[in-house]
Design goal:
Protein name: Protein-arginine rhamnosyltransferase
Catalytic activity: dTDP-beta-L-rhamnose + L-arginyl-[protein] = N(omega)-(alpha-L-rhamnosyl)-L-arginyl-[protein] + dTDP + H(+)
Shape: globular
Number of domains: 2
Radius of gyration: 21 Å
InterPro entries: EarP
Order of helices and strands: EHEHHEEHEHEHEHEHEHEHEHHHH
Strand order of the largest sheet: 3-2-1-4-5-6
Pfam families: EarP
CATH superfamily of the largest domain: Glycogen Phosphorylase B
Number of strands: 11
Structural class: alpha/beta
Strand content: 15-25%
Oligomer: single chain
Function: Protein-arginine rhamnosyltransferase that catalyzes the transfer of a single rhamnose to elongation factor P (EF-P) on 'Lys-32', a modification required for EF-P-dependent rescue of polyproline stalled ribosomes.
CATH architecture of the largest domain: 3-Layer(aba) Sandwich
C-alpha cells in the first residue's frame, strides 16, 4: 500500500524521530511504499542520515508544501494518510483526496501514553463532514492499544560495544576505564547544573555524555562554566543520527531522555533512565508520568519504587543512586517484558493489520 505521513516538528527531534522510525518500519519490515511530508527537512534528514542507504532511497522524503503540488493529485492518491500527532492536513492536499476515485483511510496517530483510558479510545472512528474515513490510533504499552515502535530492536549493550560509530570515535577514546557512563538529553527546564554538582559529591568516577546543545545549556562555552571535580568528566557529543543515538543509549549505565522516541529507546536499551517528560501548563505531564510509573514499577520492591520515582522527579542522585544496581536488573526485566507483550510486531505491525 501507499502511505503518506505528515510531520510537523514541534519539539526539535521527537516528532521527526517517531515519523522516521514509523516510515522505516513500514518500508523495511512490511514492504509498504512511504512518503513523508515534513515542515523541517534539515532535522528529519539529520535523524535519518545514519540509516542504510538502500532504505533511504525507498522512503520518499518531501517538504511539506510538496504535498499540495497539482502534479501529485489525484494521480498518486495514497491508500493511507497519517496525521502524526494530530497535525492538520494542508487544505489543498485534502481537496485532492476529495476528488480521488478511491478514498484513502486517514489515521490520527496520537502521542504515546500509559494512561488506562487509551485502550478505550484506540482505533475508534472519527467521523468527518467530508466523508473520508478517519480513525484514532493510540500507541501504548498494553496489548489492546496501538503498541510501541520497535524498529530496530537493539542488541544487548555488551554485544555491540566494539561497533563505535565513526562520528563518536573521538569521544569514545576519552572515556575512562571503570567510570560509569551517563547520557544526557533533557529539556532546558531541568535542574541539570545542580544535578551534576550533586553527582560530583559522590565518590565515583562518571563520564557524562552531553547530547548536542547541552553544553550551551550548562554555559560551558562562557565564563559561567560549571566547576566540577575530576571524578566527573563532561563530554559533548556532536549531533548524531537516530541509529547512532540508539547505540549510545545501549552503551551507557544510565540515560536521561526526553520526548517519545528516546523514551521508548531507553527502555529497549534495558538500562535505568530518567524520562524528562515534556512539561505542560495544565500539568497533564504529571498524570502521564504517574501512569507510566504504575506500569513500569508494578513488580518492583518498595525501595526501588521510591528510588525510581525520586529520580524521575529530579531528586538529586545522592538520594537514589545506591539503588542503581537493583534498578539495572529491573530495567533488563522490563525490556524482556516489553518485547514479549509487543511480540506481534508492535505499532507498525498493528497499524498495517488495522488498515487491512
Amino acid at each position: 500500500m501507499r502511505w503518506d505521513i505528515f510531520c510537523q516538528i514541534v519539539d526539535n527531534y521527537g516528532d521527526a524521530g517517531v515519523c522516521w522510525r514509523l516510515a522505516r518500519s513500514l518500508s523495511s519490515l512490511h514492504g509498504q511504499q512511504v512518503r513523508i511530508f515534513c515542515d523541517d527537512l534539515p532535522t528529519l534528514n539529520l535523524l535519518a542520515s545514519g540509516s542504510d542507504e538502500a532504505l533511504g532511497h525507498k522512503i520518499d522524503i518531501q517538504p511539506w508544501e510538496a504535498s499540495y503540488s497539482n502534479a501529485r493529485h489525484p494521480v498518486e492518491t495514497p491508500d493511507v494518510v497519517i496525521e502524526a500527532f494530530g497535525c492538520d492536513l494542508p487544505e489543498r492536499y485534502l481537496a485532492g483526496l476529495f476528488i480521488a476515485p478511491i478514498k484513502p483511510i486517514i489515521i490520527n496517530l496520537e502521542y504515546l501514553s500509559a494512561e488506562p483510558w487509551v485502550a478505550e479510545f484506540h482505533a475508534k472512528a472519527s467521523p468527518q463532514s467530508h466523508g473520508i474515513p478517519k480513525y484514532f490510533f493510540f500507541p501504548g504499552f498494553q496489548e489492546d492499544t496501538g503498541g510501541l515502535l520497535l524498529d530496530p530492536i537493539p542488541l544487548e549493550g555488551g554485544q555491540v560495544a566494539h561497533l563505535v560509530p565513526q562520528s563518536l570515535k573521538s569521544i569514545w577514546l576519552k572515556l575512562r576505564s571503570g567510570a560509569k557512563r551517563i547520557s544526557v538529553f533533557c529539556y532546558p527546564g531541568a535542574p541539570l547544573r545542580k544535578w551534576l554538582e550533586d553527582l560530583a559529591s559522590i565518590d565515583e568516577s562518571v563520564d557524562v555524555l552531553l547530547t548536542h546543545g547541552h553544553a550551551e545549556l550548562l554555559n560551558l562555552c562562557s565564563e559561567k562554566t560549571i566547576a566540577l571535580p575530576s571524578n566527573i568528566q563532561l563530554l559533548s557529543m556532536p549531533f548524531v543520527s537516530q541509529d547512532e543515538y540508539d547505540w549510545v543509549l545501549s552503551q551507557c549505565d544510565f540515560n536521561i531522555v526526553r520526548g517519545e522516541d528516546s523514551f521508548v529507546r531507553a527502555q529497549l536499551a534495558g538500562k535505568p533512565f530518567i524520562w524528562h517528560i515534556y512539561p505542560q501548563e495544565d500539568r497533564a505531564h504529571e498524570v502521564k508520568l504517574a501512569a507510566f510509573l504504575d506500569l513500569y514499577l508494578e513488580n518492583a520492591s518498595q525501595e526501588l519504587r521510591l528510588a525510581t520515582i525520586a529520580a524521575m522527579t529530579w531528586a538529586m542522585p545522592s538520594e537514589w543512586l545506591k539503588s542503581l544496581e537493583t534498578w539495572d536488573s529491573h530495567s533488563k526485566a522490563w525490556r524482556s517484558h516489553i518485547l514479549k507483550t509487543q511480540g506481534d510486531g508492535g505499532l507498525a505491525a498493528r497499524l498495517v493489520r488495522f488498515i487491512a
